[in-house]
Amino acid sequence: METEGLKIQFFKQEIERGIKDIFEAQRMIAQSGTYQRGASREIHQRKGGGLGQRTGNLLRALSNPSYTVTPSGGGVVAQTNVPLYIRFLDMKRKGNWQIYNRQIWGILYHDVRGRIRYEFQDFIEQHRKQLQAALQNEKGEKVSLF
After folding, report:
1. Which long-range contacts (CB under 8 A, 24 or more apart) does 43-52 make?
2. What is the biggest distance separating any 2 CA atoms in the chain, rounded to whole angstroms?
3. Half-sphere exposure of 62 (CA within 13 A, CB side)
4. What's the pLDDT tens digit per position in 19-47?
């Protein structure tokens, strides 16, 4: 396994984990009105419970998420499918549910970005043997990483 492939694998793994966290947070908001706020991820209960179930499309989409995370070039591309109207639920006149922007940007920017930034070294340490074997195969000689 080459070093670039190991890096992409780590990014893919962390972004998938973040997307699962986003869908779970959004599902909790839609179902019971429970949401996380702030960097400390305090849990708050919204008065009046969750969103009403008119058609159930939103809860179905959040309970059984459809997404893909694929390597592309030197990075990773993530695609998800959710009902379009979820974006409008953040508007004040629609109830300011904080279900879209706050969850996506809060989880991706704070949680996922932090894990990618600070846990990559731990990931490399766990995969040191694979990395050394890849470097040895590339150069034909034994290489010490650390």
Report:
1. 46/97, 51/89, 51/97, 51/99
2. 66
3. 24
4. 999 999 999 888 887 666 655 556 666 66
